[in-house]
Amino acid sequence: MIMKTSYLAYAIAVSCAATGTAQAAMQQNETQQSSEAEQKVLEEVVTIGYRDSVKRAVQQQRESGGIINVLKKDDMGKLQDDSVSDALQRIPGLSVERDQGEGRFIRIRGLAPDLNSVSYNGTVLAAPEAGRRAVALDVIPSDLLESVVVNKTLTPDIAAGSLGGNIELKSMTAFDRDGAFYSLGADLGYNQQASETNPKVSGVISNTFDIGGNDDSFGVAFAGSHQERSFTTDNVETGGNWDFDEPGLEEFEQRAYAVTRERTGLALNLDYRPTENAEYYLRTLYSEFADTEIRQGIITEFADPLAEGSTGAGEVVRELKDRTETQKIQAYVLGTEQRMGDWQLTVEAGTSEASESQPFAIGGAQFVQEFDDGLGYRGVKKLQLLAPDTAYQTGGYDIDEVEVSDAYTEETESNAKVDIAYDWMQPSYQATFKAGVKVSQREKTAREDIYIYEDFADLGVSGLTLADYQTGEVDYGLDRFGPGINAGALWQMLEPLERDEFFDEVESRIASYGIEEDISAGYFMFDIGVDRWQIIAGARYEHEKRSANGSRYNDETETFTPEYAEFSDANWLPSLVTRYDVTDATILRMAYSTGLVRPNFEQVRPSYFLENDDGDLKSEFGNPALQPLTSQNLDLGVEHYDESLGVVSLMAFYKDIENFVYEADLAGRPGYENFDEAVTFINGDDAYLYGLELNVVHQLSGFNNWLDNVLISSNVTLTDSEATVDWLDDGQLQTRDIALPSQSDTTANLALGYETNRLSLRLAANYKSEYLAELGDVEDSRYDIMEDDNLTVDFSAKWVINDNLNVSFAANNLTDEPFYVYTGQRRYNAQYERYGRSYTLGIQLINW
């Protein structure tokens, strides 16, 4: 029995499709007896391995109505995972897309972040970034949550919005613990590359109170977190600017980032339970993520494509970007649950708001120097500049232009829903019938005002060279860099100038738009348990009505006209989930489900830009008529639980995807016969994705020495996919097959742990193989932008001083793994970044 509780400590990422409401009712007495027995064991064993929280996570996974993974609060803190995204990457089938070395967006089973949904206590979270539906989970500190549930099977009671799965963020409540509780933590981090220390403080406090003669009927839970992190990033990138017809590089850029990142989160949750059959609750979330970034850059553009080691003419541009970007996400859910005999009624109203602001940032201040000869490069991944010494001196650079932008994006989502359930208990079977309706409204607005300052001599500006705005030598670890540009001096120069005279109306109006979506939904499902079988079946209906407004600009007439578009669509989304208990330890699962994702806002906005470039007619525009992506999903899996082995699970999945969206050039096609270029987004042919998830959790035993404290957890997901893109070539439609963007063939985790009563050690590795990041040229696979494989290794340690105090240490990115993206083949750099190692020392005070 002791060994059973031990192996559960590492079952963090067990893929489980467990029983639903009906079968849970059948096993209620057995579960209660088992829980009481295990509780006796837990009272006798002193543990620091989060075993109780993980046991509850696994139990939740087994009792769920679908195929899910669960992370509990304690598990998210094991490796100093500051954000939700960093914690989720350790779940089978999940991987992250990173920004500045931190996880930002989540991919589920190889599907891109925009094809998955994120919700907070049932309310779909709004996305702060312009053009996207994907929620950046690095905005949300992990300290604010009690658990995260990843739903990989989409049952009818889950709102549409994903093909890969739904990530449900669950807030804490005062009833999660008995009586008063508080936890206070302080961390001090250090980034090796920046030589900066980074503080973090967090705290949780909760308690229950007696109201109206009812004991412990009102609960208050509050959590807060604040972190400051300063770091640097060394970068060199070509952006895919290779010419493979005249082999050589056209241009590349070296960048030195200095970033200060602040992450603040608050959550306040109130619960009132006057009786056993009534509950009223308020869930709140506020999270703010601020990035202050100064980016010094050297852009080298060659007059003709150059091979490595050769030199020629060109220009070198020293560029500065200076911006502060703030993303905010807040959510509020007000609801009640009422139980009346075999009936249960749930009524909820929720709202979520997200914004991204970037007030008056320098988008690019450029100083240019021309060279008749002597410019080149050397290296493959880490390209280095070959240039005369004057390229590193200030006097040769003249100010060319300064771009300033003021941008703001806001998205709101409001909803109301009613769910009703009925439990029908019979001697030979039990069933739960559930139905509900939901209405929601989403609105996305984006505004960007762009100002282009140029011709500074004509404006009477006296400082015209880099010498007038220089800073000291830039700290850049990949190459010689030279002096940087002083942002303060630039702002001082721009201040006397009348900003409105430099307003770029065309770029500003094309970048601004507004979109509204109204969605009405209803569903019906039943959950029945008979003998060893569990069956959940039903369907969801969703109707969408969308309106959008933007601007059309005609370069020939220099005129703007408003653009307005409407779209309406309805879909049925059936699902069937079954479970069969082969034995008490072996479970077989099968599922059929359907998913739906609406195109992102960048793709459907009705902005239209038309220009005549010396007789060539070119246009770029959104496509409000895009159809939503839909998928039919099949899952088949088996799990085996054994007291000495732990957990072994194998899950196979297949997704047939319709209306795959990609960027295409419609020139020459009907309606665009006279165009030389007409770039927009279109629905493609069907795509598919399939794969296997394998998960093994095991604690060594039987050695009667220190080896019995060793824990092993590993998982691997193998996937493959295919989609077809097409284009016109001399009037003939051509096609080629590609992998779905963001799909890695292999995603894997391996963790080795050692635990005693007072000490916990863990070494974890996370791996994802290369994947297609972007189609550089639809017609030519040589220009496909590929993200290279990535392996990160992290270490954590925790020492319990006493029942109320513990100390922790973590080391992240031990191998100093870089981020590398290439064009077609690995020897052709598209982007290389290095972040360095990070270390964290923490202390936590807990009062149970």
From TrEMBL:
Keywords: Cell outer membrane, Membrane, Receptor, Signal, TonB box, Transmembrane, Transmembrane beta strand, Transport. Residues 1-24 form the signal peptide. It is a multi-pass membrane protein. The keyword Signal applies. Residues 370-814 form the TonB-dependent receptor-like beta-barrel domain. Its main location: membrane. Residues 61-165 form the TonB-dependent receptor plug domain. Transmembrane segments: none annotated. CDD domains: ligand_gated_channel (cd01347). It is found in: Cell outer membrane. It holds the Pfam family Plug. One of its GO terms (cellular component) is cell outer membrane. NCBIfam families: TonB-Xanth-Caul. Belongs to the TonB-dependent receptor family. This is TonB-dependent receptor. It comes from Idiomarina aquatica.
